[in-house]
Amino acid sequence: MTKYKIALGLGGVVFAAGVAWAGATINIDQKGLTFSAASLAVSKGDVVSFNNNDSTSHNILVTGNGVSLNSGLQAPGVSFKAPFLKPGMYQVTCGIHPKMKMTVTVK
Ligand SMILES: [Cu+2]
What we know:
Blueprint: E1 3-5, E2 17-20, E3 25-31, E4 34-35, E5 39-42, E6 47-52, E7 60-64, E8 67-70, E9 79-83, E10 88-94, E11 101-106
Parallel strand pairs: 3-6, 5-11
Antiparallel strand pairs: 1-2, 3-4, 6-9, 7-8, 7-10, 10-11
The structure holds copper (II) ion (CU).
Copper (II) ion is lined by residues 58, 94, 96-97, 100.
């Protein structure tokens, strides 16, 4: 089991710090300024790896259910791994390219 230490979130809320889980990793590619899926259903505890396969930088923003994740500047070739720990629906956008949108539903 891998231990992730991730301190991201809104209002100083530490998200999944030091929590160990055995979720699956689902890959979403960013190519041609689009996500490889418009919507995605995952299970609680899964990690979505957003893989920048473009030649330009992106900035992944994940919001919903009181969660706010921001990848910061995501250079070409860089993957941003977002854990989804709470059931519900999340919006995923790019802070640089607002037309890039997808939803993640966590069951
Ligand atoms: Cu972008």
